[in-house]
Structure formats: C-alpha cells, structure tokens
What we know:
The complex is a heterodimer of chains A (497) and B (450).
Chain A: H1 13-35, H2 44-68, E1 73-79, E2 82-87, H3 89-108, H4 116-132, H5 138-157, H6 163-189, H7 199-216, H8 224-231, H9 234-241, H10 245-254, H11 266-286, H12 292-311, H13 316-347, H14 363-376, H15 383-398, H16 400-425, H17 440-458, H18 461-475
Antiparallel strand pairs in A: 1-2
Helix pairs in contact in A: 1-2, 1-4, 2-3, 3-4, 3-13, 3-17, 3-18, 4-5, 5-6, 5-9, 6-7, 6-8, 7-10, 8-9, 8-12, 11-12, 11-16, 12-13, 12-16, 13-14, 13-15, 13-17, 13-18, 14-16, 14-17, 15-16, 15-17
Chain B: H1 3-30, H2 37-64, E1 70-80, E2 83-91, H3 95-116, H4 123-142, H5 146-164, H6 171-202, H7 208-211, H8 224-241, H9 250-253, H10 259-266, H11 273-280, H12 282-286, H13 289-311, H14 316-336, H15 341-375, H16 392-403, H17 408-439
Antiparallel strand pairs in B: 1-2
Amino acid sequence: MSGMEGMSIAAEPGLVLGLVAAVVTAPLVATAVVAAGGFPRSPRTPAVGGLGVALAAAALLSWLCYAAEGPAFEFGPRFGGGSLVHVDGITAALLPTVALIELAIVLVAPKRFLDPAATVRLLLGAAATTALFSTAHPLALVVLWIATALPTWISTRGTPGGRPAARVFATVMLLALACMTGGTLLMLADPPWERGCGLVGNAGGWLVAIAVLLRKGIVPFHSWYPALFSGAPLSTALAATMPQVAAYTAVRLLMGHADHGAGVGAELVVLSQLALVTAAYGAALALVQRDLRGLIGTLAMSQSAMVLAGLAGKLPMELNGALCVWISSGLALTGIGLVAWALESRAGPLSLATPQGRFYDAPALAALFLIFGLAAIGLPGTLSFVADDLIVSGSLDEQLHAGLLVIASTVLSGIAVMRGWFFIFGGPTAVDGPRHTILPRERFALTALLVPLFAFGLWPGPLVATLERAAEQLLGVTADGEPLPAPAAGEVTIGSP
Amino acid sequence: MTGHDIVAALVVMQLAAPAATLALVGLPALLGRPLSERATTQIVGGGFAVGFLAAISLLGLLFARGFTPEVVHSGTWFAVGHHAATMNLVADALSVPYVCFSTGLCWLVNSFAGKYLHREPGFARFFILLALFGTGMNLMVLADSIDVLFAGWEFVGISSALLIGFFFERRNAIDAALRAYTTYRICDVGLLTAGVVIHRAVGSGDFERLFGADWPTSTCLVPAGTATVVSLLLVFAALGKSAQVPVSGWLPRAMEGPTPSSAIFYGALSIHAGAYVLLRCEALLDMAPLARVALVVIGAGTALHASLVGRVQTDLKSMLAYASMAQASLILVEIGLGLRVIPLVHVVGHAILRSLQILRSPSALHDRHELEAAIGGHPDLGGWSPLSWLPARAQAAVYRIALERGYEEMAVTKFVVGPALRLLERLAAAERAWVTWLGEKRPRREGARP
C-alpha cells in the first residue's frame, strides 16, 4: 500500500460524484437511444456501450476508494441513517460487480430475445440497481426497490408461460414493498440511528427485516426464487437476483443502529438464523432438481442466503466473508446462468432427469459451466475459496451450528453442481447431433466474468482489505474485535451537505 | 544464493512446473484451439520431468544437510484480523521423498497415457486433469499449513472425480464419478472443520505452531483436547480419500476411468492422500489415543472387508481396487499404531507395485486370453485360502457376504442415502405444488368489478 500513499482522493469528492453519476446515467443514456429508435436492428450496441461506460466508471471508482484508504464518501442531504449518495468499501466493491453482471447479460442474450423493449427493460433495471447501490437514503431505497422490481415483473409477465411465475413474483414483491415502505416510514419517524429509539422505530426495523426476508427469498418465503428462474427469461432472473438488492438494504438500514452494541440489530440476527437454514435447505433442494433452471434457482437461493447469514456476524471477518460470497456467487452464478441460457438458446430446455449428452454439442460451454460451477463452490484459486474460508471461520468462531450449516451448504452445493454438469454434458451423444461453437461475444462476456473470480482468488489482498475497512466501519470494531476509534469531526461526511 | 534460497527455489518449482503446464495446455483448449497430442504430452510430461529433477535435486540437497527441515515462507495469501491464510511450504524427510515418487509416477503415467489414449476424443482433457492433479498433489504434499493442504486436497478430489467420469457417455461412469465426488465432499467436512479448529487454536493454519517442523520427531504443541478434536476430524477426512468402510463403495466403481488415471489415483497417490495427511499430523495423534483407536479399528475392519470382497471379484480392475483398499487400510492401521517411517515405506512400495499392476492389467488380460486359447481351457492355478479351514456352510455364508460386498453399500443406500433423497424429493414436490397454487389465476368472484 505504500505506493498508494499520497494518492488520497479525499480532496476530490467531485470526481467520486462524477463517477457515480456516470455509472447510473450511462445505462439511462443508452435507454434513451434505444427508446428513441436508434439502432433498431441491434439494440445490443448502445446497451453494451452504456453498460461498458458504467463498468469502466465503477471500476475506476472502486480503485479510487481502494487507493484512498479513507472513510465513506457522502454527498447530498443526510436523511435518516444515510445520505443520497453514499460510497464506501461495499459500494466500491459491489458497483463494478453489478455493472459487470448486467454487461455480461446483455452480451450473452440471444439475438431473438434482445428486442428494443427487452433492452430498455434491462437497461432501466441496470440503472435502478446501480443507483440503489450508490445510496444509503431510506426513501431513495424504497423508490429504487420499486424501480428494480418493475422491469422483472413486466419481463416475466410478457414471457410465454411466464404468467404464473409473474403472479408469484408480484404477490411476494407487493408484500415486500408494503413492508419496506411501512418499515422505512416508521424508522424515519423514530430513528434507530439515534439513541433511545422506541417501539415505533423497532417495529419499523422488524418490518424492513420482513421485507428483506421476502425479497431475498429466505425460508419460509423462498419459493418465488426458483419459480422466477423457471418462468422468467434467465436474463431477467439473473438481473433480479444476482445483485442482491435486499442484502444491500439490510446493510444500510439494519446495521449501525445506535443501540446495537456491536453494530448488528436483533432483526438481522433473526434474519441470519433463517438465512442459514435457507442456505443449507436450498443446497439440499438443488440435489433433486429435475431441470437446469431449477438447479440454478435453488443454488442462487442458497448462495444468496449465505450472504445474509454472514451479514449478522459480529466480527468483520464474517462480514468480510459474506461480502466476498456476495461478489463471488454473483459472478459465478451469473456465469452458470448465462452458459445455461446459451445452451437453451441452442437446444431448448435442459432436463436433469437423464444425462443429456451435450458435451460434444458445445465443448467450450461445457468447460465454462464446469469452471463457473467450481468457482461457485470454493475451488482453490478462486474468490469463492477465500469467501468460504472467511465465512466458515467467522461463523464457527461465533456459533458452532452456524459454521456447520455453512459447511453443509457448501458441501451440498458442490455435489449439486457436479451432478448438474455430468447430467447436462454427460450421456450418449447423437452421431448426427448439432454442433454449436461458442460466439465471440459469449466468450468475451464469460471470460470477463471469470477474470475477477480468478484474479481476486489468487490475489485477494486488495479486495479483502477494501471490504475489511468497510466491515470495520459498519460494525464499529476492528478486525480483531476492538472498538474502532471514533472518526475525527468532519472526516466521514465529505461533499456538500 | 544461500542453501535456503536454493531449497526454496526447488520447492516452488515443484508447484510452478505442473501449474504452468496446466495453463499452457488448458488455455488453448478453453479458447477452442487444443494443442496436438504430441505437444500436449510433451508439455505436460516436460512439466513433470522438470518437477521430478527438481525433487531429486532437493532430496540430494536435503540428504547433504542431514534432512534438516526447511520451511519456505511464501507470504500471506490474505489476512483479516487474527485470521491469516499463509502460503507456507516445507521440505523435510516426509514431503521430499513423497514428492519425488509422486512427481516421478505422474511423469511415467504421462508417458504411458500419451500412447494409451491416442486419438481418444478427450485426450487434451485427460492431460489437463493430470496436470491439475499433479499440481494439487504437490501442493498437498509440500504444504506446511492447513490452508495450502486443503487447497491441494480439493484439486486432487476434483481431478479424481472428473477422471472417473472421463467416459461420460456411459451412465456407469457418471454414477461412479458422482458417487466418488459425493464421498469426497462429505468427508472434506472433516478437513475443513479441522482447519477452522487449528486457526482458532493457534491463530493461523501453520503446522509449525501445531507440532513443529522436524518430522518424524515432531512433537505436539497444542493441548490434548485440541489435538484429539483435530485428529478425529482428520481421520474422518481420510476415510473418504482412502475408501474406508463405510464409505468405500466408490473405489471399485472408480475403475470406470481410463486405466492410466486409475493407476495413479487409486493404485498410487490419491488413495494414500489420507494416509499422507495423517502422517504429516502424526504428532497430533500422539496426543489423541481415541483417534488412534479409531484408525486401527476402521483400518483393520476395512482390510478384512476388502480382502474378503476382493477374492470374489470377477474382473481384474475391481480385484485390484479391493487390493488397493486393503493395503491402504493396513497403512492406516500402522499409523494408528504410532509407526512413522514404516507407513511411508509401505505407501511408496504399495503405490509403485499397484500402479504397475493396474497399468499392466489390460495387456495381462490379453496375455491370459492368448494363454487360454493356446491350451484350450482355463489354466489350473490352484491356490489356498485360510477360509478353506471353515466348515462348508460358513464358507458359503462368507462367500455370500463377500459377493454382496459386505452389505456395506446396501446399508448406506437403504438407511442413509435413500431416506434422505426421498425426503428431499417430497419437499421439492411440495414446493412445486405450492408455487403452482400461488401462481394460478384465480377466477373472479361473482359481482366483482371486471
């Protein structure tokens, strides 16, 4: 880090704000171009341009935050527990992840799927998601929850055979949005970020917790997760679930309350216990899925729950592990989902009841599915290995049952992934069966997803250090569990109030 | 350049050489431009040859220095608070001889497989997995911390499962690969949890803090309670890779893979991975009599099981698989009895003999068929068995038990796997029914506004 000293960007809040604006507005500009009828034959071009700019800006922002080694950057009026634009280690790590996931989805999307309307929905969803990951403002979070859920519902509803899944999604999301709105308003009326918060504020916290439970697909409200993967286009399901909007909301609204000694509220502790059960249950269900989409849906449910389970950790190590799982599972499961989508676009729906013999049809996709699958379950040398190490160590440090459930989830996910690979790609192949080569844009997108998985797996230092600082700030303790010294006056809030 | 620097360079070369070949052969294949058979064999073989020469040099150097252990600190991989994953490797009297013979065997098998798998559709895939296995095995053997050891252990498990399922056009190969991987994965819980316990006990995964670095005379540096817990977890981890009862069913099925991989995995290296880990952590076992007893009981039971079942097998590779299982079990018994050098010698001797037998098995069958054709019948080989002393009814009962593979798989399937899968199937069906109900379009009530 010595080389980075003196590169503090604390004096350049305008640059940070500009980059955040670029991340959010680039997809919106692309949306405007597509909606205005530009590139009617290939709406992918402006979409890739917009999301590419967003990714570049997010990556630069991430690097600046790593180099700055400073506290959070906040801009705009502070309302409730956070300000309108809030950039800390978590934002810095997650924004590029979200942008990369969205870009990969647009690149891999089959041509017949990516009409202008679908592209607009994807881009609007991307803009809303990146905006959500840049704010800590409670009301902005509520508005962006709605903005991120709508494209998913519209897209699922418009898919042939997708109406049942859309109804399930709508039911759960309406409940979640009602809880989120009510809970946020109660929290604003009686802020838990200030000492002496009363019954109203606590009730608000619990309502937000229920909203997170619903939106994150935690037991007993988990069924919409695999249903969405089965009924919606895979792009829609991946864009809706991989960024983990609800986990981000939990971090912003349920952590750092004044009355919580270690920075984690009772709501989050209860959520984490249910999430642990969900992680193990989802991985167990993945073992008996009959089709590929069901497998991806249950795996996504399990991995997503693992993130929430780690968020309630009292030690930065566990929180750090949860954040690493957030990134690694997001990238790896997006990779698996996109490979599945590419396969489906060539061969139709894929069953897991019998071996499908797809290896010689698409050997490159087979190799990529295996690598993404292994990268999702803790292959040494990938980010998930680091994530599993941290989250297992952290959770076992605190509670034995938590550690054992995390281990059970990891073990079962591994078996499910390997079963999925052998049943899709193994089996007899028809001599005159089709042979499909991977398209260059598919190869580029999938390779781009692999790069951070392996780069941060082999060289996790910078990412872990960035996330450690963010975890320490959120929990108010150092990595060793010592209380964090209070920031100097004016250090936290930078930019115009 | 000091002696330590030379040792460090040679140790790193053990890992770098096979890892580089993995990248050199794997990346072109991933990009859709696999190398020719000749280039593939030469590159992977070259990596193993470099590794083997480095290992022999290391052995000579270590011998000249009186087998004084050298720990190579390659830095910290990542650290959060008190939790640090270090990249420590060790060159000592256990790791260096072991890495010599493991790299040497990989090199030999590479040469054999280059011809054996000629024009096989998965030619490049085999060598990529062989390079992955070689990297993982060396990582595991040279590890001086539980984190590095676990990483190597995982590579060995993954490459093993993928090679068992090498001929994945066949359903049997898929089932065998999944059975092996499931067993590995479940038993990996032991190693994973042991790693966490070690981190909590000594603040890092370094073996130096656990039992020093002077194998075979290392002594335990942690309390007996910790040593017992870690040892029992390591024994559990070893059960899977060493195919011990009640999780031995995967081994005979693992012979579905190509002969060269069967030879190196289940005749030589992978089958002894558990024994190696236990040998590395022998000092802990000194403080854990319970783990020793468990090892002796499980090992002796499995040896008896494998000897009986192996005698009634009707195909050569299954017979060899049970012979491997029996020897691996005896090695665990030796470790359980507190021996250190004898199990190492036993591992090396058994690995060399068994891999030769497995590599030779296809041509041995061919020879046998020629012999039978020449003499016009089966040659009378005679033979004697201690079971012939038993009464006829007891012999029949033992024969039946052996034929049913000791009812081990039946018991595991009937009482563990079957009920668990049935429960999960029911839960999945209930989930589907619930989602279907939730997603149904409800008919509007009469009188409701359209």
